[in-house]
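Risk mitigation, structural track. In case the binding assays with guanine fail to produce interpretable data, a predicted complex structure has been prepared as a fallback.
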Amino acid sequence: MTAKLILGKEVSEEIYGELRQRIEALKARGVTPGLAVVLVGDDPASQVYVRKKGEMCEELGMRSTTIVMPKETTQEELLRKVAELNADPSIHGYLVQLPLPDHIDEEAVIDAIDPSKDVDCFHPSNVGRMLIGDPDFLPATPAGVQQMLVRSGIETAGRHVVVVGRSNIVGKPMAAMMVQRGAGADSTVTVVHSKTPNLAEITSTADILVVAIGKPRFITADMVKEGAVVIDVGTNRIQDPTHPKGSRLVGDVDFDAVKEKASYITPVPGGVGPMTICMLMANAVRAAERVVG
Ligand code: GUN
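Fallback model:
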């Protein structure tokens, strides 16, 4: 079997079409959804992400605010900025780009974000609401994966979803979402991670394998069941002297071998990647809609 590709660009275009209509409806009621992004320091990867988020806002006709603060910013100064954004009615949603410089307590900053503006869905109150199945927002990357499954017509009810990785941003919320009642979920879920002794044995039983462990080409063909759906959340830069840049991006899955065994697979790049910003925009639109009522 050679797997069908699930492409983030195609799935996200469909969602952007729906978001454009919702943005128009908000504008007709006098509200332009506004998203702010706070970037502390000059991490080059973060700068790229933040720029992309701003560009997408503009493209969708949303109001975009980028706040760049120097890497010497104190925790107190950042918390003051967070309080300002909480109080600003023109900002419906915002996020503080991670990672933050070492001298800033990330948890304290996330705790200070008004949950109704927390488009990352990182605030403990939003994480809790997601866990009990009554979410205001869903975390962008797992929500993007779920949309890829649903919009590709992949049945999730009663299927065995194995999540590889237990990060707060992907693995844990992914597992929590797939075990909920309802469309695009209702799955039987197993989470495996770096301390799981028989990891390959478990991944081989997955109907749907979601990999977010951050290790290049960690999942090999022998770890995948024939006909499985394989979603690769990893983005790892590896050295490749044959490549013009001297390096290239690969996922957490050995794509060339696994695609011969899977029924569906997401490539890297071009798979899950474009979904994260898309679902972030969906959360920003939702935040504005909640204000309008
Ligand atoms: N850094 C890497 N991914 C993310 C994300 O989804 N949100 C924020 N705020 N920072 C990140």
